[in-house]
Structures are given as C-alpha cells and as structure tokens.
Design goal:
The complex is a heterodimer. Chain A has 28 helices and four strands. Chain A is mostly helical. Chain B has one domain: Alkaline Phosphatase, subunit A (3-Layer(aba) Sandwich), CATH 3.40.720. Chain B has helices at residues 2-15, 19-29, 66-71, 103-107, 126-135, 147-154, 199-209, 216-233, 246-254, 263-276, 302-321, 392-403, 408-414; strands at 44-50, 60-61, 87-88, 94-95, 111-118, 164-167, 182-184, 282-287, 328-334, 354-360, 368-369, 390-391. The longest helix of chain B has 20 residues, at 302-321. Classes of the chains: A mainly alpha, B alpha/beta.
Chain lengths: 488, 427
C-alpha cells in the first residue's frame, strides 16, 4: 500500500468513527427516546414498564429521584442480600475465616483442601452476588452505577492475597456510602481501608532505615523496612490529579514518605475489626517537600493533609469531571461540559452529587448525538440484559463465567486503573459473537413481544423489521444480540 | 566489552540500512494474490507483552557486577553454581533459573537479549508507558492506532482475516487501527464452534449486522476469522503445515501429557494455528502480573512463579512451530524496567530501562546486545534505574526491516519520527 492510499484509508477510518456517534437523526428526542436514554445511562437500562414510568413522571423527576437515592430496596432483594454472609459481615470476621483456611494450606488433607476451596469460593461468590443482585434489582440505579464507577476508579484486585476477603467490606464500607457524597470522604475511606493498603503495598511501606521490632510483632511479617511508592504514585496518577498534571518522581517519593506508617494490623483486624492503624514507629519523621509545599513532620496528619490538598486541586476536579463525562456522555466528552463540571466540583468543595447534577442537566447529556454513543462494557451488557429480561441471575457462577469470557471478570481487574468504559477497549470481533452467544442462551425463557416493549425507544426500525421477518423462536435472542442493545 | 560489541554492531548496521526491504517488496508485489498469501506472509512476528513492568535486572542479571548484589541484598540472583544461582549466559550476565527451558535456545544462538532498552519517554506510569510501547510514538498520546496494525497494513501482500491476531478477550491497543485484526479467546474456546455456526442463527444475525455502520465491520471480521480458524483447526486449509487437524497434531505433540493452563497452553495452540493457517503472520499475546513492588523473591518466589510458565510457553512455541520457527521472530517486551535497588519490602519500584528478549530461527543469538554501562551509582538513571541506551523502536525496526523485509518508506509509516539509529546485529 503506498503512502497516499494509507492516508486515504486513515481518513476514511477517522470519518467513520466520527459518524457513528451521530447515527440518530439530529432531531430532538421523543419523550420515549429521552426516557430510554436516561435509563440507559444513569441506570443499567430499562426493566419492563420502566420506559412508560419514566415517560410519565418526566425525565427530570427521574434524575432527581436517582440523585437522592433514597428508595427502599424491594423485600425480595433485601432477603437475598441478608443471606449473603460475606457481604454482611465486618471485614475482620471474613478475614478470620479466610486466614483460618489459608493456614491449612500447609500439609493439608484432601478434606481440608475441599474445605478451603469451599470457604474461599463462598466469600468470592457471595461478594459478587450482592453486587450483581443490587445492580439488577435496586431501584436506586444511579447509586449502583456509581458504585461500579468508583470501584473502577479506586480499583483493587481480588486475586491479590488477602484482598479476596476484604473486597466486600471495601465496596460496602469505603465506596458505597460515599458514591454520591463528597469526594474527600471517598478518597479518605479508600486510603484507610486495608483492601487498598494491601493492594498497593502501603501497609508495608516504612521510613528508610526503620528497624522492625522483632519478628512476630503485630502478628505479621515485620521483615519490611523501607519506602514503597506504589500507592503514592497511583494516588496522584489515578485517584486524584491524573498523569501529566505536573508532579515529578520526587513528588511521588515525598508523598510516599508522608504516608509511611499508614497500615493495618491483621490481629487487630480479626479481633476488633480495626481496619486501620497508624504506626508512628514506621513513619518517616523528617520534613518533606511535596508539590512545592514544605511539609513539617506531623505523623498521620501529613497523609491527611495530602488527601485534603489532592482532593481540592483543579487538576483533580478536571480529571474526575473528564472521567465522569466520559462514562456518562461520550468517549471523547465535550470539553466545555468538563470545564463546567470541574467548576461545580470546586464551587461545591468536591460534592459528587452536585457535579452529577451539572452533568445530567446539561444540553450535552441530552443531545441527540449522545444517544447510544456509548458501547456497553461486558458488565453493563450482562446487567442490562438481566434487567430487560426481568430475570435476576439465579446462578451466580454462570453470570461470573460470562463476565470472564467477555474479558471483564468481576473484581478481577489486576491493574489499579480499573476497567475502561470506552468502545476502543471493548469492541472487537470476538466480543460481538460472544455477546450474541450469551443472548441466545438467555432467550428461550423470554417473550420477544414483552422484551420489545421493554426496550421501546432504543431499538431502531431497521432492527425491528429484521426481527419481524425472522422465525419467532429467534426474536428474543435477536433483540438482546442486536447492534442496538450493544450500545447505551 | 559489551559496549564495544554494540558500537561495532551499530557501525556495521548503519551501512546495511535498507537494501533487502525494497527487493522483497518488489518480489512479492509482482505476484499478488497467487496461492493466497503464502509468500508474502511466510515471515512471522510474534510479540509477547509483559504488562506491569517485569524486573529485567532479575531476568538477565548482571551477576558478575558486585554492585548488583549490593543493590539487591535479598532478591539478587547468585552467580551460576551458587545458592539461588542464575544460569550462565556469557560469564557476566546470568539468566533467571525459572527460565531454564530457554537455555537450549540460547546455546543454539537463537535467543538474544537487548539490555538497557526501552522507551525514551521518562514516564513511570504503567498505563502511559504501555500506550507508548503499543503506539510506538513515545510522548504522543493522540496516535490513534497501534504499530502492529500499521505494520500489517504496510507489509506487502493482501491482508486476510487472520493475518494479524491477538489471543485474549479484548483487542489490544497495539493491534487497533484501520487494518483488519482479530482476537481469539484464550484456551480451547478460541477454536470451538459457536452459536452463529448454526445456519438459522447465523442468517438472522448476519441480517442484523450487515451494513451496520458501527459494528458491521467488526462483526464480519469476527465471522471471517472464525471460519478460517475453524478450518485451520480442522486441517482444511490449503498450504497448511499439517493434514489431519489441530487436535490430532496437538495430541501427538503433547505425547499425551496435557500442558498446564495459561500461557504454555495458548502458546501450543498458537503454534498449531500458525502451522495450519499460512495466512497468520503477526500474533500478539499479553501477560500480566509483573508489578512486583513487594516480596518478589529471587530464584524462587513470586517473580519466579510468573517466569516459569512464560519460559515454558516460549519453549513450547519454538518447538511446536517446527520448521516454521526458522521464519519466525518472537519479541518479549515490557513497558519499563524496575529500580536497580530493591525497596524495603523485598520488591522493586517503577524504573526505566529493561531487557527485551528476541528469539527465532534467524536470530543471531547467544549474546546480550545493547550499550550496557553497569549498575554502579554513577551509571544509574536518576540514581535509581537503568538508562535506556537502545530505543525499543530500534529493535523493532531492525526486525521489521531485516526479518519481515519491510521497505524504508513503509518503515516510516510504522515507526514515525523514530530516532536516527543504526540497526542492531540481531537478525
């Protein structure tokens, strides 16, 4: 291929990308389309009857109700959640069970091995089941969407050591209460939680030259002595300011020094459910210079001060606003919208609900070109299919298997950046046929007519025609496997 | 000594800048579309990316350098023969013992390393550094496509559905772009029939996706590639290496013993597919779990547990490719290296230069290339990690030009604004 042809092909590719977002005609949305749009974005898609309900109550009232997130859970969901021990118990209780069976790993019998596997699997599955059951059935859909959003933002990986036992508490105690609250509180809760302290190694980070006090101190390996900058780096790069916002390697090291001593103690965690400990002996007591600020030695307060500063930086406001707009509007969000959201963030001192209100009431959010512009992640695809079918997944193992095969295992993102939510990340030739296979598997129990009514407003006439001309047993699968249902 | 070798190689390489490429282009372009693609795609490239920054200083360890043991009191590999000893490479460097399956390739001079190599961009962010390594435009985030995608577009010959493929559930950045590329699921699912093979279901969804502006192309690519892979797995491809199908061949080669799951299994499958489907030319696999900030171990431990299946898988790949290994170059790379000094937790933090691994039948191996300056305090970059003395694009361009016979003009498209450097005496 010669160079000019290459350029020509590249140009076509670029214009094709630009055109996709504008597929719906640039006419104002019908009330039904507007209802479908907000349900696809601030909820995991419509359940039967949702389109009619939101059309009647009006999109604005629906958005307000979702921002308030005050609706009681349906009794069936509450009952289901109550039966999931790992999702209800304090971190220390789950951890105790986990550590007990993990200690059996040395010269264990086959019976012990089976028991260990059973306990560990139960913890993982109950944690996942609570998440998925709520995502499908909670009336506070925006809360569920934001729990997923913030979990990815502050990602921890369940496959890393004890994090398997801590994930349920992390989501329930550090993420969920603040999902629509103040960002500084959310940041602080994740920073103090053992799941994060363990995942990004801050629990073992100490002042250089620190000498551990004997081997069994605190019931844990005390062999560590020295700085670990893993958490400090991701705290700035991923959690707050964003990469390229002007900090240096020196700033990373200085922040790591400020955070030395932020740890937890397994024995205290198991005994008293103390999920955080500041160990002043491990703390670096010299002064620091961080982001151009002189930091006087101040123990744990140095880290708290760092979180205060980071939470209110303009770079943080912009970084978070960009990510929210990318999640809710378009892969390439409109810069003017991002700027307005960042302003709301600063004006409201990091109030997430206010930033979301600016987002949801913007013209950009309701613009025809935003409709359907987002390609569903595997998680969004699976949850929205369950909602549209009005069937909460009863076999959680099957649902988790589907997510694995689609490349998005729940709590299974190894890296601290969490899962992406862009089309580039998830659209590929294999993904479509796998989603179609899942849709086909789900469809025998479904009534295509009911399904079509549920999805009114987001299925194009072209798709409707193709479905009408196909054998009835295939129609439900075609709806859930259609191009229209791949997007939100 | 290493330094001088490298400079010699540079001097020799500079004189050889292009001639092969243009002739190869002319030769293949003269016979387009005959006997599908076999000539044009006969030279293969497989890229293995280790996401998370593998600790190159414990992969190819400078065990004869006293500074190395000093900087890494608990995680350094010993000299060959000592406790936790490395495997001898050249008297100075030693190979991590978990990579023992690769030693025969080193001895046959089919495995080389380029040390202190990597991206010139100084970022220590995993995500930016991976992005740059996949776009091959360090420092420029706006590059839309990956270099392997540009490469498949630039190579002579017609592109068929499976010419560029990745193993894994998502399409990696490195293969994204306007040229067709496919991804196959890990494990056996990648070559199994799916629901769209049922005629009525296939017809229904073909109808839904035909002409769909957004998803039509991806859908069609998936279907085409799936059929081709199914044919290859069944041994139905003309010009394929083996009759009788993949499962029979794989069983025979296994000698009945199943491979462990994960990379060795995927590597065996990839080799069988490549032998059965001559259209496959570029392949990519990513492996995670290398971000060893704590308790990485030395000869045994966390890093060793990751390296073991990698080494085994690469050996399996080389062996299962059979005669095709002579026409294949395999590159192993990672976004950056790790700190020369171990941290307080028996791990290492984000660094800069790393080692790239290159293996293949035509690789001039059995040596560690690169401008190696040691790990003395004065030699370290910012006092903490290896400098990058060989740009990763120099390694890749050497392979693209010498092995894949990519012409000069195309090389510029694949690696735009590459630094002016000679080629390595590598393939």
């Amino acid at each position: 291929m010669n160079f000019s042809r290459w350029i020509a092909v590249a140009a076509v590719a670029v214009s094709a990308t630009a055109a996709t977002a504008a597929t719906p005609a640039a006419e104002p949305l019908t009330p039904e389309q507007a209802a479908a749009h907000v349900l696809n974005r601030i909820a995991y898609g419509p359940k039967p009857g949702d389109i009619q309900r939101v059309t009647q109550m009006g999109v604005q009232r629906y958005i307000d109700a979702q921002l308030n997130a005050g609706m009681p859970l349906p009794p069936a969901l509450s009952a289901r959640l109550a039966g999931l021990d790992a999702a209800q118990e304090p971190a220390g209780v789950v951890m105790q069970r986990f550590l007990e069976v993990r200690a059996m790993a040395k010269d264990e019998s086959d019976g012990d091995k089976a028991k260990r596997r059973e306990v560990v699997t139960a913890i993982a599955q109950q944690t996942a089941e609570a998440r998925i059951a709520r995502a499908v059935d909670s009336p506070n859909q925006l809360e569920e969407v934001m729990v997923d959003f913030w979990f990815n933002h502050f990602n921890v990986f369940s496959g890393k050591g004890v994090d398997r036992a801590l994930i349920a508490s992390y989501e329930r105690d550090a993420i969920r209460p603040y999902a629509l609250g103040n960002f500084r509180d959310l940041l602080g809760a994740t920073a103090h939680h053992p799941a994060m302290l363990y995942y990004l190694d801050n629990w073992v980070s100490t002042a250089n030259g620190y000498v551990p006090r004997g081997k069994k101190q605190g019931g844990q390996k005390a062999k560590s002595s020295g700085l670990n900058e893993n958490y400090a780096r991701e705290l700035m790069e991923l959690h707050t300011m964003g990469v390229d916002s002007g900090y240096t390697q020196k700033d990373v090291t200085e922040l790591a020094r400020m955070l030395t001593g932020w740890t937890y103690d397994n024995r205290e965690l198991v005994k008293r459910n103390r999920t955080f400990a500041f160990d002043s002996a491990r703390h670096d007591r010299d002064d620091k210079v961080w982001l151009g600020r002189r930091i006087k030695a101040g123990g744990q307060e140095e880290g708290e001060y760092a979180l205060d500063v980071l939470a209110m930086l303009p770079a943080t406001a912009h970084h978070l606003s960009f990510q929210l707009a990318q999640y809710f509007v378009q892969d390439q969000p409109p810069p003017a919208l991002v700027d307005r959201m960042a302003k709301t963030y600063i004006d409201s001192k990091g109030d997430i609900r206010s930033v979301l209100r600016t987002l949801f009431t913007s013209a950009e959010f309701m613009a025809p070109e935003a409709v359907g512009a987002k390609f569903k992640t595997p998680y969004q695809y699976v949850i929205s299919a369950a909602r549209a079918s009005d069937t909460a997944p009863s076999d959680i193992k099957q649902t988790l298997g589907v997510l694995n095969r689609l490349g998005m295992p729940l709590y299974g993102c190894q890296t601290p950046d969490g899962y992406k939510n862009t089309q580039d990340a998830w659209l590929n030739p294999d993904a479509l046929s796998r989603r179609i296979a899942f849709a086909t598997q789900l469809s025998p129990a479904l009534d295509a007519q009911v399904l079509q009514a549920t999805l009114a407003g987001s299925i194009s006439p072209k798709t409707q025609n193709a479905i009408a001309g196909s054998p009835p047993p295939l129609r439900a699968a075609m709806l859930l496997g259609s191009p229209d249902f791949m997007q939100r | 000594m290493h330094r001088r070798d490298f400079l010699n190689a540079l001097a020799a390489g500079a004189g050889l800048m292009i001639p092969l490429g243009r002739h190869a282009w002319a030769a293949t372009a003269a016979s387009p579309n005959t006997a599908p693609n076999t000539d044009a795609t006969s030279r293969k490239l497989i890229v293995i990316m280790l996401r998370g920054a593998v600790d190159g200083l414990n992969v190819v360890a400078p065990v004869a350098d006293a500074n190395y043991a000093r900087l890494r009191p608990t995680i350094a590999l010993g000299r060959p023969g000592e406790d936790n000893g490395a495997l001898n490479l050249d008297g100075y460097f030693g190979l991590h013992p978990a990579l023992a399956p690769l030693l025969p390739l080193w001895e046959q001079k089919k495995l080389a390393f380029i040390h202190a190599s990597g991206s010139p961009d100084i970022t220590r962010s995993h995500f930016d550094a991976q992005d740059y390594m996949e776009s091959a435009t360090p420092g420029i985030k706006s590059t839309a496509d990956g270099w392997m995608n540009r490469l498949v577009a630039a190579l002579p010959g017609t592109t068929t559905p499976t010419r560029a493929l990745s193993i894994g559930p998502t399409m990696p950045r490195i293969l994204s772009g306007h040229a067709a590329a496919v991804n196959l699921a890990n494990g056996a699912a990648g070559t199994k029939a799916n629901v769209l093979d049922r005629p009525a279901v296939g017809k229904a969804f073909d109808q839904l996706y035909a002409d769909n502006a957004r998803f039509g192309a991806a859908y069609q690519q998936g279907q085409d590639a799936h059929r081709e892979v199914m044919d290859a797995a069944a041994g139905k491809m003309a010009g394929g290496g083996m009759a009788g199908g993949m499962s029979a061949e794989m069983q025979a080669a296994n000698g009945g013993a199943p491979l462990p799951n994960g990379f060795p299994d995927d590597a065996a499958r990839l080799a069988a597919l490549m032998r059965n489907d001559p259209n496959i030319q570029l392949a990519f696999v990513a492996l995670g779990g290398w971000d060893t900030h704590a308790s990485q171990g030395s000869a045994r431990g966390q890093l060793a547990n990751r390296l073991q299946p990698l080494g085994q898988g690469l050996a399996v790949l080389a062996q299962r490719l059979g005669p095709l290994f002579d026409q294949t170059t395999i590159v192993v790379m990672s976004e950056f290296g790790r700190t020369a000094r171990e941290n307080g937790n028996g791990g290492t933090d984000h660094g800069h230069g790393n080692a790239m691994w290159v293996l293949g039948g035509s690789v001039k191996g059995g040596k560690v290339l690169g401008d190696w300056r040691g790990v003395g305090d004065a030699e370290l970059n910012e006092g903490r990690d290896l400098p990058v003395t060989t740009d990763f694009r120099t390694v890749l361009a050497t392979i693209a030009e010498r092995h894949l016979r990519l012409a000069d003009k195309q090389l510029v498209q694949v690696f735009p604004s590459m630094p002016r450097a000679g080629r390595l005496d590598l393939v």
